[in-house]
Write a structure and sequence with these properties.
Shape: globular
Strand order of the largest sheet: 1-2-7-4
Number of strands: 10
Largest sheet: 4 strands, antiparallel
Order of helices and strands: HEHHEEHEHEEEHEEHHEHHHHH
Bound molecules: iron/sulfur cluster
Radius of gyration: 21 Å
Number of domains: 1
Distance between the termini: 64 Å
Length: 327
């Protein structure tokens, strides 16, 4: 592995680490990411009791994988050999068009386009390749919404924003409709100052608005009660206490972000690969209700839609819960 030479400060008085850090941020912006920050790769000791308690309380529902790799979650050096820096990027996913206001069946906005995992990973790989060109070979891994990385905590460490009471990362002046992604690398670049401002204050709108009381404490979600988990992650039929409470959401839920004042001025994203697929702009409730297995496959599986994370049977159960809530 080739390592960075350590030249002296440049003419602007910036150290090589600072120069590298700002080059990475410029490249992230050129790739269309909306924010980028860096943190020193080290153990997130202060998050350990929080994660430990969340798991012990069973707030991860049936997502058993959340309890795996406990040590790796807290220390990126166990995920990437020789890790020195965690680069965190944010990608706006607020769509340019939305489901019609009259839509009874609602899909979380992040899922309107193609599966974002691929879109994000492609761009993160380009960022990592840029670092190779600049600094030489480095050990790295890219992540987006991947189980072993506490990405919101890393976003706070990298100075991007703060976690709201709805547990979403809020970027100042931008809001929370953002995907996060990380490059964990052995390259040493200048870290940013961790974000320390509380962006919620006395507001409790998200906690008050959650129809299933899934926000059990500020920043703490009982996933087993969350509509997002119930309509996507939970492979079984949605259990009885929640069937009539999903408020029309058939894939994910945006309620606690819709009510957040930080999202009042959310602007549409500019990412071509996240453009809404036609069911999310054109389908009526009738289309959703009568969607056959073949149509599901054609409209979601074959288009690489984020909805392909569930199957036709699960969609039908989610729709039937939405109907139960209207009775
Ligand atoms: S996503 Fe919906 S169900 Fe989950 S915490 Fe937010 S408002 Fe509650
Ligand atoms: S709705 Fe209010 S309390 Fe909830 S995340 Fe937004 S600012 Fe924070």
């Amino acid at each position: 592995m080739r390592t960075n030479n350590q030249p002296t400060n440049n003419r602007r008085g910036r150290s090589p680490r600072q120069t590298l850090s700002s080059a990475i941020k410029s490249k992230a912006a050129a790739l269309g990411f909306d924010a980028c920050g860096l943190a020193r790769a080290s153990a997130l000791e202060e998050y350990k009791p929080v994660l430990d308690q969340w798991l012990k309380q069973g707030y991860h529902g049936k997502m058993a994988y959340m309890a795996n790799h406990f040590a790796k979650r807290l220390d990126p050096r166990l995920l990437t050999e020789g890790a020195k820096t965690v680069i965190v990027v944010a990608q706006n996913h607020y769509p340019p068009v939305h489901q019609p206001a009259s839509a009874g069946y609602k899909v979380a906005r992040y899922a309107y386009g193609k599966d974002y995992h691929m879109v994000m990973k492609n761009k993160l790989q380009k960022l990592a390749a840029f670092i190779t060109d600049l600094a030489g070979e480095h050990s790295y891994r890219v992540f987006t919404d991947s189980a072993p990385v506490l990405e919101r905590s890393w976003a706070v460490e990298a100075g991007l924003g703060n976690t709201g009471k709805n547990a979403c990362l809020i970027l100042p002046r931008k809001g929370s409709f953002y995907f996060l992604g990380e490059v964990i690398t052995s390259v040493e670049a200048e870290p940013d100052t961790p974000f320390s401002k509380d962006l919620c204050g006395s507001c409790t709108r998200c906690m008050d608005a959650c129809p299933t009381s899934a926000i059990v404490a500020p920043g703490k979600i009982d996933a087993g009660k969350c509509i997002s988990y119930l309509t996507i992650e939970l492979k079984d039929r949605i259990p009885e206490p929640f069937r009539a409470k999903t408020r029309g959401w058939i894939f994910g839920c945006d309620i606690c972000q819709e009510v957040c004042p930080h999202n009042r001025h959310a602007l549409p994203h500019q990412e071509k690969d996240l453009e809404p697929l036609n069911p999310f702009t054109d389908w009526t409730d009738h289309n959703w209700r009568t969607c056959t297995k073949e149509e599901f496959s054609r409209s979601f599986k074959q288009t690489g839609s984020a909805l392909s994370r569930i199957n036709h049977e699960k969609l039908a159960d989610n729709i039937s819960c939405a109907d139960e809530g209207c009775r």
